[in-house]
Amino acid sequence: MAGSIPLLLFKTGVATSLVIDETQLGPHSWPRAMLIGLIGLGALWGVVRWRVGSSKGETTSDLEQCDLVKLILGILSVTTYGAAITLIGFALSTFLFLLCWFPLGGIRNILTIMVNSALGTCILLYLFLKVAYLPLPRGIGAFDSLTVGFYRILGIY
Amino acid sequence: MDILQNLLVGLSHLFGVIPFFLLLAGIFTGVIAGALPGISFVNAMALALPFTYVMQPINAMIFLSGLYCGGVFGGSISSILINIPGSPGSLPATWDGYPMTRRGESARALGIAITCSAIGGVGSALMMIFVSPPFANFALRFGQPEFFAATILGLVSVVAIAKGNMLTSLISLFVGLTVGAIGLDPLYAIPRLTFGWTVLDNGVSFVVVLIGMFAIGEVLGWISSRKSVSYKPTSATKARLPGIKELLKLKGAIARGTGIGCVIGAIPGTGAIIGAIIAYGVEKHVSPHGDRFGTGVDEGLAAPETAKNATTGTATIPLLTLGIPGSAATAIMLAALMLHGVNPGPMLFITGTDLVYTVFAAYLVANILMIAVGMLVARAFTLLMTIPPAILFGFITILCLVGAFGVRNNIADVYICIGFGILGFLLQKFNVPTAPLILGVILGPLAERYFLTSMIAYDNDFLIFFTRPLSGFIMFLAFAFLIWSFWAPIKTLTTRLRIIFSVG
Predict the structure, then answer these.
(1) pLDDT tens digit string along B11-44?
(2) Which of B284, B324, B325, B354 has its CA 20 to 30 A from that of B210?
């Protein structure tokens, strides 16, 4: 397993692009060497694990001690937030993300959730747009107009 | 004399209104971020990076220098008050600092930590100021083979010193090197490992990997944790600085801590935690009170605190003189310099003297100002700890993703950041060290560029790295590090072979 992923990368990402003149180091020499190293180490790791066995000295993971439901929800919420930034704009996606995140993190008071989400979004908008001058995505279509309107209300535009 | 003159010029730049304000802001941000468990100062530096885009290069470096120096100390506040290290380098402060708090001596413990950190930091800054220029002059003799050898030394020492199984550290390193190879080749502009996705043509930014693995990984670790920890301190959070007599009693611990920290800091891949732990171990053996270490002994706190901040200045020497970062914190400083079009290396000491000496001045002054800032933040610590973790980590997530986006204004970096965040979380859970991976991403492209240009310049002669005296010496050091890191398994193997052959 540990060597199979780099082997796959080697076959698809490096070896098929160019015919390399074997007397001269080409653009694929370095990544090829790294992948060969990774394949070799992965194979060695597999051999060591097989020899040691699962009964003694194997590193167990701490994954069993995690709340897997919350982990999956956390990953989903962060990933959805990342995807939503370009679609619906930074302002709206941030507000919605915080609305979802705070209850997931254990905050139950509706007022705390709403106030922190709204205030936090506004403060972040000022920081990123007025201080750091970052060109944050405004969303597409109607969300773009919505974001611009919101920026005008806040005095950012 | 040149050094002193240039340092005075640097100080004059530093004491302008905006630069001084940025230095203070950096120190405050670093101390607060370091003091809060769950956010290390490295995360804070990565999160602060987008805000440096609009600054002048000098101001950006002043801000990050203040953040770095303050952040390395900040973790000691939570270590001493609530027995939770705010950053990895502050772990030893829990061993003797927290017992002092339990005895009702938190004010004295905080005072010792603040003062010793400042002394160590100033010592390291002075070392950086007086060692960097002659080392930079020396580094002008470096050719591509020497730079390649120095990068290899950095990579090997990261693996040698990484926690955990050596094999997993090597795998982590090679994953990082492979990730660093993604994108257009540095010489021929041919895409590698991009699978036809043009977004990957520019490669994977190490800042994005850093933010993802450290910060997002930490966020996922918190959200999935079943434990609910109360972070409220149970005693007073005011600091009392030690008097001259108390400091004189600790002079041995302070001197040893400074020396150890300065040496360890200069080695790529080490950093504050290694300096602090080694200093604690040495002090335990040397101190007449060594047998009472762990019960709240002054030297047990003073030595690691001094060593911790003594790593900061010398860790910046390889960054400024060779352009090779040796730690995550200096890697972020490298990112800031590159984003502003400044190339660190020996030439920077000729073309960018103002910037270099202003950074030196910033380190010196930051470690002094840290005393006042540390005392203020310690007093406000109770207030900081009332912030619910859900709110803190929510905003950290947003800062991370915006920081990742801001590197190249490319939404693909946000997805890469999240991906590496999940990877970082999983690696932590499976006890695979992440430092080798991150440094592999950072140093891999550098190593490749130096390697290929050396091969072009010296007709594909692989032996050039060993036949040139300087690069040969550096490669020998790398080899020595490698042997030292594999010494235990080599010894075990030779012992077994001896048994087999003697039995036979």
Answers:
(1) 999 999 999 999 999 999 999 988 887 667 887 8
(2) B354
Q: What is the CA radius of gyration of chain B?
A: 23
CA distance to A28, B247, B468, B480, per residue, from B462 (Å)? 17, 54, 11, 20
Dihedral over Cα of B330, B333, B338, B342: its sign = negative
Judged by CB atoms closer than 8 Å, whether chains meet at B388 and A79 is answered as no
Q: B399 vs chain A: nearest CA distance in angstroms?
A: 9
Q: For an interface test with A, give the residue of B167, B223, B486 to mutate (most A CBs within 10 A).
A: B223
Tokens 């704009």 sit on residue: A89
Q: Which tokens is B416 given?
A: 């890469």
Closest-CA distance, B412 to chain A, in angstroms, reads: 9
Cα separation, B232 vs B78, whole angstroms: 10
Q: Which of A30, A86, A94 sits opposite B448 (nearest CB)?
A: A30
The interaxial angle of helices B435-457 and B328-339, nearest 10 deg, is: 60
Q: Which of A30, A71, A83 sits opposite B220 (nearest CB)?
A: A71
Q: Which residues 6+ apart lie within 8 Å of B322 measured at CB?
A: B139, B142, B147, B150, B344, B345, B346
Residues of chain B positioned with their CB less than 8 A from the CB of A73: 223
* Sequence spans of domains, chain B: 2-503
Question: How far apart (Å, rounded) are the C-alpha atoms in residues B386 and B382?
Answer: 7
Q: What is the pLDDT of residue B29?
A: 92
Domain-wise residue ranges, chain A: 4-52, 64-154
The C-alpha atoms of residue A112 and residue A103 are separated, in whole angstroms, by: 10
Across the interface, do B398 and A94 touch by the CB < 8 Å criterion? yes
How many other β-carbons are positioned within 10 Å of the β-carbon of residue B123?
Answer: 23
Size of interface A-B (CB pairs under 8 A): 177
Report the pLDDT value the prediction gives residue B24, as an integer from 0 to 100.
95
pLDDT in the model for residue A18: 44
| Diameter of chain B measured on Cα atoms | 79
> Are the beta carbons of B54 and A85 separated by less than 8 Å?
no
Long-range Cβ contact pairs of B336-340 (< 8 A, separation 24 or more): B336/B49, B336/B52, B336/B57, B336/B60, B336/B61, B336/B64, B337/B57, B337/B61, B339/B49, B339/B52, B339/B53, B339/B407, B340/B56, B340/B57, B340/B60
Chain A CB contacts of B219 under 8 Å are: 74, 78
A8-49 residue pLDDT tens: 666 555 544 444 455 567 788 888 899 999 999 989 888 888
Q: How many CB atoms neighbour CB A56 within 10 A?
A: 6
Distance CA B300, CA B285 (A): 11
